[in-house]
Amino acid sequence: MEKKNPTAISQPRTWPRRTIIWMAAAVGIVGLVRLGIFPTPAQRWALRDNPGVQDSPYGLFPQENDPFHFIPCTDVSRPPPLDDPTPQQSWAALFDPNPNHWSWGSTGRGIYLCGYLDLPLDYHNSSDHRIVRIAVNKFQVAGLAHKNDPRISSKSYRSERTIIINPGGPGGSGTSFLWETAEEMTNRFSDGELDVLGWDPRGVNFSLPAAACFPQNGFRDRWSLLALRYREEAPRAQLEAVDAMNNATFFACQQRLGDFGRFISTASVARDLDEIRKALHEEEVTGYLVSYGTGIGQTYVNMFPTRAGRLILDGTEYVRDHRLLGGFGWTALDNATDAWRDGFLGECLNAGPKWCALANPVSSQNGPVTLAQLEARMAQLLDSLKARPQSAYTESGGPSLVTYSALVERILYPAMYRPENWPGTAQMLYELEAGNATLAAKSLDLSWSEHSEKPIHPYTPASSELDPLVICSDSYDAPLPDGLDWWDQLWKDMSARSWMAGNSRFFAVLPCRYYNTYWAPPSEVYRGDLNHTLKTPTLLIASPYDPATPLRNGRRLRAEMGQNARLIVHHAYGHSSRRDMSECTNQVAKAYILHGIIPKEQETHCYANEKPYVRGLIGDE
Ligand SMILES: *[C@@H]1O[C@H](CO)[C@@H](O)[C@H](O)[C@H]1NC(C)=O
Ligand SMILES: *[C@@H]1O[C@H](CO)[C@@H](O)[C@H](O)[C@H]1NC(C)=O
Ligand SMILES: *[C@@H]1O[C@H](CO)[C@@H](O)[C@H](O)[C@H]1NC(C)=O
Ligand SMILES: *[C@@H]1O[C@H](CO)[C@@H](O)[C@H](O)[C@H]1NC(C)=O
Ligand SMILES: *[C@@H]1O[C@H](CO)[C@@H](O)[C@H](O)[C@H]1NC(C)=O
Ligand SMILES: *[C@@H]1O[C@H](CO)[C@@H](O)[C@H](O)[C@H]1NC(C)=O
């Protein structure tokens, strides 16, 4: 499960510019479509030979016979609604012929292409003609063929293979992941040779229908505030409250989305991935799938063993666990508190006060801070918040409250995913400890979806509804105990095993109590073994301090896959190998993606380039 990190400094977006001229043009074109006088495909074809405002030096998009309907991305390239009677025309109308409005890569060569793929909602019922419309974006490293260049066809601008990426979740957006990481991916795995493709899985972000069960995002915020009380703050009454809320949420999902909950299991997503492969005209899937994405990957290669190409699964789950009731939660807990103690606190002390505020002694202490002292200080801080939340104020949010549950769920646990944020988080805790809650309140403010002045699209779905629908369909046939006692015990066990991750993981699986109340069995789940003989062995990556996908699970998967997988043990902090990079991991990964070289050993051990907090320093010394 990917976590939003509210303390993350927002990254510069490669997101297209919005220009007033383009806005005016878009309004004009959309207007024409509404009136039904937008050119038909044949007319568009004619426009191609008719240089004018509608023309572009790269020809017209979408190109004929492109199953993805790719057009160069602009700010408005969002797939047409499902009830649009002429989606292809509406989409073609979004093509902006001015290349200055397109999203080019940072070197000006690669280009971001936006498209969509219409796929069956139900792969197992040919009389059900409903579709899902999957948003697909691609970063094409070689750019586009100039239409006056007769030597080269546009086909040769596509790379031979495409790195298909997925960020996890379940609710993670692959198009958004592409915008953030495409250039990193193609450089890291292929020296910039291969194109990169990201898709929004069924129900996610721009794919349709959207798994959104609230009419507006703001409503979701007030709802999740109600839900946000951990066992340490409120045990049984909160269990009853959240359980009733889950029932209400699934009821609302059923009202708004009908039987959609039957069609979003991981097996359905794996079939979509195979359709993407076919649309790319590639024999095998090449890819980099992270976290829950590794569950899609394991499922995919075992459903389609002859289609297994060079596939990296990073931050490895053991997808078999997800067949068990609550398994998505309790198998994830091993190492989150290890990351806190040895990583966040321990490395802070190793780095010292120059790099980490928490390494400063508090007034009553003498000499350098020990790990035991720092752990005790933090335990005291957290205990005080359990007893009474800290009042706070920010200019942007007004009155604010720092509760134990909000601090752990929205700041501390997400911080374990991203060591690059540790200095900021340590500073925030240091000030909170000294009685100043301003930084903590600011981080919390940022974690609500309605914090920004520019509201996001009102029907953008959120993980809060999609995640449980996916997780619960994958375990729909596990025996369900009556009443709440079993769950109460599970909550107790999980929060005792990990104060850091136990609560949050528990609430991710509790909704499964109601899946079968509202939905018939999923159209398909994968229940086979994970040891099929694959065309190409899979490369797994797992880290001993991963707060979400512990190394133990990667090892269990490797053991079942046998000769069909190799594992890189990535000795570093954070979730997956992207957060705390290792030259060694990157070399093995690149040799695999680019040349198909697979390590001989079952396990390869790689170490991070740098220590957290003092990033860059070690290299300089
Ligand atoms: C298949 O789809 C048809 C048409 O939507 C529907 O009437 C029928 O119940 C479906 N069958 C199953 C087994 O879901
Ligand atoms: C949806 O995808 C777009 C890019 O395609 C991205 O800018 C946006 O942040 C995504 N939203 C969510 C909620 O993931
Ligand atoms: C679940 O929600 C529905 C719809 O609001 C309600 O009728 C039903 O009584 C609820 N069941 C439980 C167990 O809360
Ligand atoms: C991760 O958790 C496992 C299982 O609890 C434990 O054996 C292992 O030592 C932990 N790893 C670290 C680095 O603490
Ligand atoms: C509290 O912290 C904020 C942010 O670091 C700072 O701007 C402010 O001056 C602090 N307030 C006090 C009373 O020290
Ligand atoms: C996969 O494992 C099962 C036991 O779990 C075994 O019966 C089967 O033969 C194995 N298949 C292959 C291809 O190794």
TrEMBL record:
Keyword Glycoprotein assigned: no
UniProt xrefs under InterPro entries: AB_hydrolase_fold, Pept_S33_TAP-like_C, Serine_prot/Carboxylest_S33
SUPFAM superfamilies linked: alpha/beta-Hydrolases (SSF53474)
Superkingdom of the organism of origin: Eukaryota
GO molecular function, one term: hydrolase activity
Biological process per Gene Ontology, one example term: monocarboxylic acid biosynthetic process
Assigned keywords, A-Z: Hydrolase, Membrane, Transmembrane, Transmembrane helix
The keyword Ligase appears for this protein: no
Annotated Peptidase S33 tripeptidyl aminopeptidase-like C-terminal domain residues: 529-604
Name of the protein this chain belongs to: Peptidase S33 tripeptidyl aminopeptidase-like C-terminal domain-containing protein
Family: Belongs to the peptidase S33 family.
Matching Pfam families: Abhydrolase_4 (PF08386)
Record field: transmembrane: 20-38
